[in-house]
Amino acid sequence: MAQAYTAACTFLAHLVACRSCSSDLKAADCSNRTLIDYAQQELTRWGYSCHMVEVLPGKWNLYADLRPDLPVGLLLSGHSDTVPPDSAGWQSDPFCLTTRDGSLYGLGACDMKGALACFMALAQEIAVRKSKLRQSLTLLFTCEEETSMAGARQAVSLVRPSALCIIGEPTSLTPVIAHKGYAARTLTIKGRSAHSSNPRAGRNAITGLKLALDCLDKVAARLASELDPGYSVPYATLNYGLVSGGQCINQICAQVDLSFDLRPLHYGTQEDLNAMLQAALAPVRQAGFEFALTVPYVDVPALEQDISPLLQDFVKLCPQKPCKVNYCTEGSILKACAQAVVVCGPGSIDKAHQIDECVPQSDMRAYVKLLQDVSLQVLF
User: Fold this and answer.
1) Which position among 65, 81, 330, 363 bears the catalytic label?
2) Region 137-166: what's the mean pLDDT?
3) Could you read off the pLDDT of 214-253 as tens digits, one per residue?
4) What distance in Å separates the CA atoms of residue 277 and residue 268, rounded to the nearest whole number?
5) Region class of 147: left (phi > 0), else alpha (psi between -120 and 50), else beta
6) Left, alpha or beta for 96 (phi > 0: left; psi -120 to 50: alpha)?
7) What angle do CA 309, 163, 342 make, to 5 degrees?
8) Are 373 and 319 within 8 A, CB to CB?
9) Is 214 strand, coil or helix?
10) Which Pfam families does UniProt cross-reference here (predicted)?
11) CA–centroid distance for 378 within its chain
12) pLDDT in tens, 280-320
């Protein structure tokens, strides 16, 4: 195990050094190609059959299969991108792995290059025994998880069906077996501009926004009435995240935009959700305001699944009890190509997307051991 942990730390240093930031701001966004090239070269050298796909310009997925002639027993999946760093606040270079106070510091060390490094360490170890496998080990490195999740959506058509898929998001090695969905919407309300000295000459879109907020508050109240005590926030939530409108104080506002998100416990279809929101917002149109709902990101469904024997066996190997979480992951997308999905990785989500991001060395050691144990259980 010590050898695999040392290898994981070496791989993590290389992965952290590869800039792979995803951002909605063009100036902060960059390609993940350097990271994908590095992982592909290593995996190919160990005997994996590798396939790279450019999902979006400069954004790549990598799929590596050790034994394409066998059914897939274990799929290890994680995203290769990070959020951009606030470099000025870091105590050390965010692109240089640094060890201090029992933790490994670097951009993405926690979310989630630490898990990717452990996947590579296991992949190297298993490759030596590939002739003894009864099921194949496969790895999937995705792009764009921090923005659109386009990488995971593309991967569904690429990967072979697997028995168990492990998503290496930072959970402090707690097995996450279910999570809420995610749906973002932008509501645009149209009014009519005029001089503020004569309100009757126009129609103030901010007044329409007030009506819309009342309508959406009622939606939030309905969502809060359905409870699932398995979640720390035991109901679906609605959050107002962004609002903009108007051009100057002495002009009646002609347009206002409100962006909000929902995190449903269960999920039907994007069309069903849009129909519900349109119906809920009907009083806005009845008051004389035109509005439009747009979808900035494709919805992410909730992860819901039966607890299969395979999942039960994995949970028994973990130091923590299984749980449900309020945030969403690629797990609900990749569920389409796996009999069972579990989200489990080293590091805490509380350390993700922060200055001085880090993963505990103890978590890395424990995760390497966990992956070794599950591989023996599933692959041989």
Assistant:
1) 81
2) 95
3) 999 999 999 999 999 999 999 999 999 999 999 999 999 9
4) 13
5) alpha
6) beta
7) 70
8) no
9) helix
10) M20_dimer, Peptidase_M20
11) 25
12) 999 999 999 999 999 998 999 999 998 899 999 999 999 89
| CA 48/CA 67 separation, integer angstroms | 7
Residue 176 region by backbone torsions, left for phi larger than 0, else alpha for psi between -120 and 50, else beta: beta
> What is the DSSP secondary structure assignment for residue 217, as one 8-state letter?
H
203 is written with which tokens?
Answer: 């129609």
The stretch 95-106 carries a mean pLDDT of 96
Gyration radius of the chain's alpha carbons: 23
Residue 1 confidence (pLDDT): 67
Query: Tell me, what DSSP letter sits at residue 2?
Result: H
Percent of the chain at pLDDT exceeding 90? 91
pLDDT tens-digit map of 198-216 = 988 899 999 999 999 999 9
Does residue 357 carry a catalytic annotation?
no
| Closest by CA position to 314, among listed 175, 189, 178 | 175
Give ∠ CA 363-338-361 in degrees, rounded to 5.
5
Question: In one letter, which amino acid is 94?
Answer: P
Q: Any catalytic annotation for residue 145?
A: yes
- Which residue reads 């290389």 in tokens? 14
CA-to-CA separations, 324 to 57, 104, 177, 317, in angstroms, rounded: 34, 27, 6, 18
Most distant CA pair in the chain: distance in Å?
82
Q: Which of 125, 145, 299, 330 is catalytic?
A: 145
